[in-house]
User: Which sequence fits this backbone?
């Protein structure tokens, strides 16, 4: 007999002091790198020891701000430093492939800011090189390492949801003129920068889609502005996802199963909340709130701790977000982009 939960399972995540303190180098001292540095230094035991930029002045400024001992105006110089265990690539995605291949050739473990690469083809190159070298590589899909995601995965593994029929998720922001997300040269567009979160959420729940249908539009620069995606899966399950760089959306997600409805609060890819409801209309519900005190993008800290734990276990990829899944998600984005007529020069 089915018994509805009265409490959520406790999240299972490694404590910050339970994993080795790796020595990190950062490539690309921009905004996301600063956010990552703040999260790591506040909420982990990991050590930031080096930063590299094409501009030595920028690297020095970043190093001074975050008390990092080594600053480089050349990526190769940092990669040659034997005191760097793992590299965080925080540049724009159009250079991820080249920097990843350089880092792998130098024998460094890697955390690559999302999107992992411009497309599935580039991702396959990175993954092949990483597997040949035996180094650890993962995409910085930080949502997978949050406490709420541990709970979601336990609900799925325990069959609490029943048969999954529909997944929904959205992510829209009003990105101003001149923003890199609007840039064709940088590999911008809503799908790669914003829509990757809803698509990754659906991927975790339902896997790789068997069919992808996208309706959307482009902006004057040629990148995708907005997409309404319907993904189909074996067993008749579907995902309805949307993303836009033209307006703010609720940024929520849900999983509708035969035995329960799970709703993830806004913003669903950051530390937030969960509501689990009985399947009947106006059914009883239980609620969980993230009370760790780690809020917003401070949650980037969890992926750093997780990576250090995986490396200590001798793994070469994340068991929570495999490299094959990373490729499959980019393949989905590729298909969605191409349906709107947005292709990179290498894809023509």
Assistant:
């Amino acid at each position: 007999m089915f018994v509805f939960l009265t409490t959520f399972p406790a999240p299972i995540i490694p404590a910050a002091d339970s994993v080795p303190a790796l020595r990190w180098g950062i490539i690309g001292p921009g905004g996301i790198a600063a956010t990552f540095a703040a999260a790591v230094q506040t909420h982990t035991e990991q050590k930031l020891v080096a930063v590299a930029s094409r501009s030595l002045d920028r690297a020095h400024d970043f190093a001074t701000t975050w008390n990092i001992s080594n600053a480089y105006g050349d990526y190769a110089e940092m990669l040659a430093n034997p005191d760097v265990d793992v590299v965080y690539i925080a540049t724009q995605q159009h250079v991820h492939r080249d920097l990843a291949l350089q880092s792998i050739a130098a024998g460094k473990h890697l955390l690559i800011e999302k999107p992992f690469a411009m497309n599935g083809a580039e991702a396959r190159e990175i993954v092949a090189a990483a597997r040949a070298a035996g180094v650890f590589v993962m995409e910085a899909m930080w949502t997978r390492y949050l406490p709420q995601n541990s709970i979601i995965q336990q609900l799925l593994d325990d069959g609490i949801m029943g048969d999954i029929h529909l997944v929904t998720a959205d992510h829209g922001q009003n990105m101003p003129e001149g923003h890199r997300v609007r840039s064709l040269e940088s590999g911008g567009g809503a799908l790669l920068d914003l829509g990757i979160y809803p698509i990754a959420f659906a991927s975790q729940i339902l896997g790789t889609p068997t069919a992808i249908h996208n309706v959307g539009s482009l902006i004057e620069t040629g990148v995708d502005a907005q997409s309404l995606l319907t993904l189909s899966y074996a067993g008749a399950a579907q995902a309805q996802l949307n993303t836009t760089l033209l307006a703010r959306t609720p940024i929520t997600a849900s999983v509708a199963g035969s035995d329960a409805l799970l709703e993830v609060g806004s913003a669903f890819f950051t530390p937030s909340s969960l509501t689990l409801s009985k399947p009947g209309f106006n059914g009883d519900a239980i609620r969980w709130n993230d009370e760790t005190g780690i809020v917003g993008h401070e949650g980037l800290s969890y992926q750093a701790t997780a990576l250090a734990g995986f490396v200590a276990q001798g793994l070469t990829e994340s068991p929570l977000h495999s490299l094959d899944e990373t490729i499959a998600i980019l393949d989905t984005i590729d298909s969605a982009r191409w349906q709107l007529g947005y292709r990179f020069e290498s894809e023509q």
Q: What stands out?
A: Residues 190-206 form the longest helix (17 residues). The mean pLDDT is 97. Residues 197 and 269 are 7 Å apart (CA to CA). The first strand starts at residue 23 and ends at 27.
